[in-house]
Here is the input.
Amino acid sequence: MKILVVGSGGREHALVWKLAQSPDADRIYCAPGNAGTEGVGENVPIPTNDLPKLARFAKENRIDLTVIGPDNQLAAGIVDLFEAEGLRVFGPDKKAAQLEASKIFAKELMSAEKIPTAHARMFSSSAEALNYCDEVALPVVIKADGLALGKGVIIAHDRADARQAVRSMMEERAFGEAGRRIIIEECLRGSECSVHALVSGKSFRMLATARDHKRALDDDLGPNTGGMGAVSPADNWNAAREREFTGSIMQPLLEGLTRNGTMFRGLLFPGLMITQQELRVLEFNCRFGDPETQAILPRMRSDLLPLLIATIEGGLENVAIEFDSRVAVTVILASGGYPGKYETGKPIAGLENAAQLADVQIFHAGTKQQDGKTMTSGGRVLAITALGDSVEQARERAYAAINQIHFDGCHFRRDIALRPPDT
Ligand code: AMP
Ligand code: GLY
Here is the structure.
C-alpha cells in the first residue's frame, strides 16, 4: 500500500515511523515532513495548506491512504476534497471537524447531550462579554471560538485580565476570525488527561491515554505551549474512569453527532479535566495529539494501518488493539525563546549516539536537513521517547538520551512525568 502522511511535526514523524512497520506498507510519503521523516519515508515538498496540490499528488501517485496530521487542514475541508476525488483519507470531514474548530459547536452539542463540561456562556458582542466580566466568578476562562494555534485560551484571575482577553480576541482580533465569537466559562480544578480513541460513526475503540505537560517551565510555570512532554498511560486514569468516560461522554457524544447527521470518522482526542466529582470535557480534538502521539505509538503493539482503514471503512469492532504495558515518557527539546519568538538554523549534535540507546526513540519536529547536517527549523525541535518498566526507568532513559544531544539554545523540562497529578 502507498501511504501519504500530511504534516511536518513530531506527531507526523511518529505516524510515519509506526505506519512504516506495517507489513502492508510499501511506500510512505510525508508532505512536507522533516529531517526525521525523510529516510523512514520520502518527503514531498508540498505545504500542508496547499490542499489541491496534495490531492493531485495523491491521485497521480495512486496513494491508497492519506493520513491528516494537523487540525487546520481538517477544518479547511481536506477530507471532503480527497473524498470528492475518490481518495481514501483518514480524518473527519469539515462538518465533523467542527467539534474542534468551533468551541461553540462543541459546547452546544455537549449541552444538548448533557455531557459534563465547564458551565459556559457564548458571546458575539464584545460589549456584552465585557459586561459579563464584571459579574462572573473568578478565576474565569476566556476562549476564542475558532482555532488559534493552541493560544486561544486565557485563564483570567482578575477582572482587568478578563476584560483585556475579551478586547484582544473580539476587538483587536488577535486570533483573526477565530475570535469573532468567544466563550466565557468556569475555571475547573483537577488534573488533565488526554484520551485517544478511534471513532467510526457510532462505534469507537480506545487507543490509550496520555498526560501532556503544557507549561514551558518545570513545576508547571511559565507560558502555555503546544506541549513540552507527555507520559502514557496517564497516571491519573483507571478502569472506573474509563467506564465513566464511555457512559457519560463517548456514548452521548456519538449519539448526538449521528442524530444531527454528522458522521465522525477519525481520531477523537478529548481533553478531560478529572475533577473531584466527575470527568469533564475541556475540549475535543479531532486528530492525534502532539506530543501525546510520540508517547502513545511506541507503546502500540498492533499494526496501526488496519486500524485506520477499519475506522474509515467499518469493522472497527473486530480489530485487535494491543498496547505494551510499559510506560512511555516523551520529552520535548525546544528552541531558545519558544513558545515566544525563537531562533532556528542551529546544527544539532549527538543524534546518532542518542539513537543507539535501548528503548529510546527520537522523533523529529522542527528539523531540516541542510548540507548534510540536521538543523533546527521550528519551536519544538525533537521529541525524545523512552520506554521503561516504571516511570522512573522511562524518565532515566529519556534524559540519558537527551544528555547526548545538543543544539544552541536548547531547553526542555526536567520534570516530565515526575509530579503526581492532584487528583
Ligand atoms: P483547550 O484548548 O480548551 O483544551 O484549553 C487549553 C488548556 O487550557 C487546557 O488544556 C487546560 O489546561 C486549560 N483550560 C481550558 N479550559 C479550562 C477550564 N474550563 N478550566 C481550567 N482550565 C482550562
Ligand atoms: N498536546 C495537545 C494537543 O495536541 O492539542
Notes: The radius of gyration is 21 Å. The chain has a mean pLDDT of 96. The longest helix spans residues 239-259.
